[in-house]
């Protein structure tokens, strides 16, 4: 069985007979396809020390050198996209074309980072005072930690690693222990692209490895993506140690369908965004709020489409793959059960699924729960499965109030033909990423990705200008070059003249 170790000093470490290990599962069969070693604090310390040594060199690499490495990595990633997509589908279960699409979205960030020469330009002002100039530059932080979730094994690491590397940092990446292969393969490609040994380290592990990374004195910052309870804990632990931290959490994204919306367009969007990747996307639509008389027509159109989706092995061209683990599948089922018991109507019920795949896979079919109420656990909790909750509202204002009362604020979308209604939604909705007739408004690379409220702890979002700012610290230099000794003693506080 394939055994994944750690990636340190530009190579996979030899198997460690004393290391703790866990099985890596194929969710479409329920069987183990490999094992991954789980780093303890000592292993993390060795990895960080190697990264810190590498950083001393990499921080001085010219922008031209860094750019060449990024371009090479970009080309290698493109060349190996299908192969990496295969690794993602084997461990995560998502449909192959979806796995390719996440790599393509990650490539967008690599391409942004290829322009690091422009992104890192500083500022300079002449004569801010007589004979005095000021400049500001952006320098790397040092060793930066990146911790990623199971649902985007390639894209989430690619939100951070290329920009951090381009800014002159060394990265220690801790991928999800459920999907380690894509990160290990991308580490090989970085090395092939010419990145010096140690400038990217991959540490496989679980909570112990994450905590050791946060606590390590030589780790300057933490970029985390995962569930809200862990994001909150990671933020608190890192902040108390004085680290720079961005911790992106879970979500409950609402799609509001106003009475004038094109019902077919809204139903297509809701079904694609709720059931793509079996609902295991942080930008999945998990709640549709149908306003007024559009409700019944919308639910009917959604149900018709949901029933047509094929559930099965992601390698066989199905629409939805399995859920990540048996426990997660059972949790999704119990939330659906609780919703039905509390009075929601299962218009489409994914508990009775007939998958195109191994009977031991972690299957759950598309589920549409109508007449969901905010007090139900199916509404309040992040289900992270192929379950669309439909809530009925009487007015657009009621729908907006509902969205804004959610503790999460990742994405929100409105479907309407009315420009002023859309503008009002856009201005007042409390979410970091908003779609107007767009169900999954993931920002393109030059903009930054991140939510509000319990969907992001910290003040920096991922990639774009905020990503560059996160991975650099600014230095302001005030200088003068007097032609003679013309200053004299002056003990007063300096003022411009
Ligand atoms: P998770 O929180 O269980 O794990 C995320 C990472 O944290 C993994 O690397 C894991 O090993 C580590 N981890 C788990 N428990 C830990 C603990 N107690 N202490 C320290 N580290 C710990 O999340 P997941 O199940 O892998 O991913 C799904 C979640 O991620 C969903 O809630 C989803 O909404 C969220 N997510 C958010 C975004 C976003 O951009 N906001 C993007 C993708 C996923």
From TrEMBL:
UniProt keyword Ribonucleoprotein, yes or no: no
Any single GO BP term: thymine catabolic process
Stretches assigned to the Aldehyde dehydrogenase domain: 22-477
InterPro entries: Ald_DH/histidinol_DH (IPR016161), Ald_DH_C (IPR016163), Ald_DH_CS_CYS (IPR016160), Ald_DH_N (IPR016162), Aldehyde_DH_dom (IPR015590), MeMal-semiAld_DH (IPR010061)
PANTHER family in the record: MALONATE-SEMIALDEHYDE DEHYDROGENASE
Enzyme's top EC category: oxidoreductase
Organism name: Ruania alkalisoli
NCBIfam families linked: MMSDH
UniProt-listed PROSITE patterns: ALDEHYDE_DEHYDR_CYS (PS00070)
Protein name: methylmalonate-semialdehyde dehydrogenase (CoA acylating)
GO MF annotation terms: methylmalonate-semialdehyde dehydrogenase (acylating, NAD) activity
């Amino acid at each position: 069985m394939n055994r994944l170790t750690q990636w340190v000093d530009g190579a996979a470490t030899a198997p460690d007979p004393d290391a703790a290990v866990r099985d890596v599962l194929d969710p479409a069969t329920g069987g183990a396809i490999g094992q991954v070693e789980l780093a303890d604090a000592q292993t993390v310390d060795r990895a960080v020390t190697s990264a810190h040594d590498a950083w001393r060199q990499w921080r001085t690499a010219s922008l031209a050198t860094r750019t060449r490495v990024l371009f090479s990595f970009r080309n290698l990633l493109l060349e190996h996209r299908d192969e990496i997509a295969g690794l993602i589908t084997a461990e995560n279960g998502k449909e192959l074309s979806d796995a390719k699409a996440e790599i393509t979205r990650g490539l967008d960030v690599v391409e942004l980072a290829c322009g690091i020469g422009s992104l890192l330009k500083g500022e300079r002002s002449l004569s801010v005072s007589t004979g005095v100039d000021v400049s500001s530059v952006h320098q790397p932080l040092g060793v930066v930690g990146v911790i990623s979730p199971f649902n985007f094994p390639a894209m989430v690491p690619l939100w951070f690693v290329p920009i951090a590397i381009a800014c002159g940092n060394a990265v220690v990446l801790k991928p999800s222990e459920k999907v380690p292969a894509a990160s290990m393969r991308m580490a090989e490609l970085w090395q092939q692209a010419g990145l010096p040994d140690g400038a990217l380290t991959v540490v496989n592990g679980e909570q112990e490895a994450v905590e050791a990374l946060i606590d390590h004195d030589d780790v300057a910052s933490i970029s985390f993506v995962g569930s809200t309870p862990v994001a909150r804990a990671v933020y608190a632990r890192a902040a108390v140690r004085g680290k720079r931290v961005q911790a992106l959490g879970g979500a409950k994204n609402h799609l509001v369908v106003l009475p004038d919306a094109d019902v077919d367009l809204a139903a297509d969007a809701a079904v694609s965004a709720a059931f793509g990747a079996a609902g295991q996307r942080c930008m999945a639509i998990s709640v549709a709020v149908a306003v007024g008389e559009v409700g019944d027509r919308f639910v009917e159109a959604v149900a018709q489409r949901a029933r047509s989706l094929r559930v099965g092995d992601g390698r066989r061209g199905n629409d939805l793959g399995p859920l990540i683990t048996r426990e997660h599948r059972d949790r999704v089922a119990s939330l659906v059960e609780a919703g039905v018991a509390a009075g929601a109507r299962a218009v489409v019920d994914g508990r009775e699924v007939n998958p195109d795949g191994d009977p031991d896979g972690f299957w759950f079919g598309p589920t549409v729960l109508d007449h969901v109420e905010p007090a139900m656990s199916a509404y309040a909790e992040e289900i992270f499965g192929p379950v669309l909750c439909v809530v009925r509202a009487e007015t657009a204002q009621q729908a907006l109030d509902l969205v804004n009362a959610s503790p999460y604020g990742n994405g929100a979308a409105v479907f309407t033909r009315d420009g002023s209604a859309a503008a009002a939604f856009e201005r007042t909705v409390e979410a970091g990423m908003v779609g107007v007739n767009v169900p999954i408004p993931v920002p393109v690379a030059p903009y930054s990705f991140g939510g509000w409220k319990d969907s992001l702890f910290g003040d920096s979002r991922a990639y774009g200008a905020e990503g560059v700012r996160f991975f650099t610290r600014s230095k302001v230099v005030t200088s003068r070059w007097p032609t003679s000794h013309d200053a004299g003693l002056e003990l007063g506080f300096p003022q411009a003249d």
